[in-house]
Specification:
heterodimer, A: alpha+beta, Alpha-Beta Plaits, two-stranded antiparallel ribbon, 2 helices, about 10% helix, B: alpha/beta, Rossmann fold, 2 domains, 7-stranded mixed β-sheet, 12 helices, about 40% helix
Chain lengths: ~100, ~400
């Protein structure tokens, strides 16, 4: 509807803005009490988990998903929403067997 | 006062419509407003312009003034020249967003059609709502007539979007006295206005940048952001003076920058006012001058940044300064007086200062009232050397407090 012309003029002053980047708040994976274990053989690639993940740490791939454990806080929402039950939450305190 | 340009169109219009025309001439792209009372005919006129195709803009109608300014903010951080208008309780309802806006350093313009605050319910003008915003970090100007209001709104876009400032600007005008009263207004050609303002500029945008705004920040960084705002305010003074002069060269009207002086030059007594009643004060100056009293008027056009340099010089050259406030900081003084008095806080002088609080709740103050108040204070000062610091003028009487 309108022509939108705006010129961004950078100023050498402190502004209340920040530039988000990976790990700006540290490696939040250390907060985790439960670890998501993914079975990509069960994955139908609906990627609901990616949509629901509040930490934006699920990467979608051709063969399923990969969760970035450096930042995953272990909330378990992905496991809850997965229709195939392809994600299992296991306590971080015990040894787990990784397939 | 008419410029040389032949394209200048003269129309009779209310102050509210002068604001709407100014926003149209400045080619605002987004207007957001709460459309019901205390909204004025500013937004109604802008919707007419949009409906008729004269203005290509989006209008966002929202459920409150708080949301109206939030929507303007959203549009502005995305890169749009955005505008809103409000009044009295609507302005107070916006207050949180008014602070947020300036601290984000995003340019925008808002018109404030000033009206008193209730209770009791009262729809008449004073400066209570406007002056309540003086600590928000907005540049604040106030007009005396409809022509000046139009000129101030156009200049507000230019000032707000200047990279040396990047602060939002609010332009005040009294409701009813200006807002609802029609007078002739010269409309400058739109192309020239656009050339004068230039393209939209801002320090960042949510479209251009991947940013988050308003994150938790340390006390030190927070304070430094506020210190930058204070510096920007101080810098804006020179810009305001420059833009006022440049506007005069292009459009034929220049007002003197942050203050407008009327017969100040040889004045022994100096009167300070702001807004529409300054016209009545000018008539009073005329009458007093006819009696041989050397009195002048300094009309404050910008409350923020406060023109302390200009005001200091005027007071230092005068015996008596009388500051008229159309609002009061209850328990203290009128807010204009506080700033005027602070301007000379470290100066040694023989003269005196007086604060007159008057016209609150829309009480009419005529040029005769001004003559009466000014004469009474000059006589007392000349005979006794003393004056009462704070006086509230009501019902034709001056009451000390």
């Amino acid at each position: 509807m309108m022509e939108s012309k705006v010129k961004i003029v950078r100023i050498n002053e402190k502004l209340p803005i920040s530039f988000p980047q990976n790990g700006a708040a540290g490696k939040t994976g250390s907060w985790r009490l439960y670890r998501p274990i993914v079975d990509n053989n069960k994955c139908t690639k609906c990627f609901l988990c990616e949509l629901y993940c509040p930490g934006n740490v699920i990467e979608t791939r051709k063969d399923g998903i990969q969760i970035e454990l450096d930042y995953c806080k272990g909330c378990g929402i992905c496991a809850k929403v997965c229709p195939q039950k392809a994600i299992e939450m296991v306590p971080e305190t015990v040894e787990v067997k990784i397939a | 006062m008419i410029g040389q340009n032949k394209q200048i169109e003269r129309k009779v219009m209310t102050g509210n419509h002068a604001v709407a025309y100014a926003a149209k001439l400045s080619r605002v792209q987004v207007v957001s407003a709460y459309p019901i009372t205390p909204q004025t005919s500013i937004v109604e006129k802008l919707s007419e312009f949009i409906e008729s195709g004269e203005l290509k803009a989006n209008i966002i109608k929202v459920e409150s003034e708080h949301s109206a300014l939030a929507a303007v903010y959203g549009a502005a951080i995305a890169g749009a020249r955005a505008f809103t208008a409000t009044s009295s309780h609507g302005l107070l309802y916006m207050h949180e967003w008014i602070h947020w806006f300036s601290r984000a350093r995003i340019p925008a313009v808002m018109a404030v059609v000033s009206r008193t605050i209730g209770p009791p319910w009262n729809i008449w003008p004073d400066h209570s709502d406007f002056m309540d915003q003086r600590d928000t970090g907005w540049i604040m100007s106030f007009g005396m007539d409809n022509q000046e209001v139009l000129d101030l709104v156009i200049q507000a876009f230019r000032i707000s979007e200047d990279p040396s400032v990047f602060l939002p600007v609010m332009v005040g005008l009294e409701g009813f006295i200006l807002g609802g009263t029609a007078m002739p207004v010269d409309l400058p050609p739109e192309e020239e206005v656009i050339t004068f303002i230039g393209e939209r500029k801002q320090p960042y945008s949510v479209v251009e940048d991947r940013i988050s705004i308003g994150n938790l920040t340390s006390p030190e960084d927070t304070e430094e952001i506020f210190m930058e705002m204070q510096k920007a305010m101080e810098r804006s003074k020179e810009l305001i003076r420059k833009i006022d002069a440049e506007y005069g060269k292009i459009f034929g009207r220049s007002y003197g920058g942050l203050i407008n002086c009327y017969k100040c030059e040889d004045s022994k007594y100096i009167i300070f006012t702001m807004g529409a009643w300054s016209g009545d004060a000018m008539e009073a100056i005329e009458a007093l001058r006819e009696e041989g009293i050397k009195v002048g008027l300094a009309r404050i056009r910008y409350v923020r940044p406060f023109p302390r340099e200009e005001i200091r010089e005027l007071i230092m050259n005068a015996k008596l300064g009388i500051v008229f406030d159309r609002s009061i900081s209850f328990g203290s003084y009128g807010p204009l007086f506080e700033d005027v008095a602070a301007s000379i806080a470290n100066d040694k002088r023989e003269g005196k200062l007086v604060n007159i609080v008057a016209g609150l709740g829309g009480v009419n103050v005529t040029s005769e009232d001004f003559v009466k108040i000014i004469e009474k204070n000059i006589n007392k000062f000349e005979s006794e050397g003393e004056v009462e610091l704070l006086q509230w003028y009501h019902g034709g009487e001056v009451m000390g407090y």
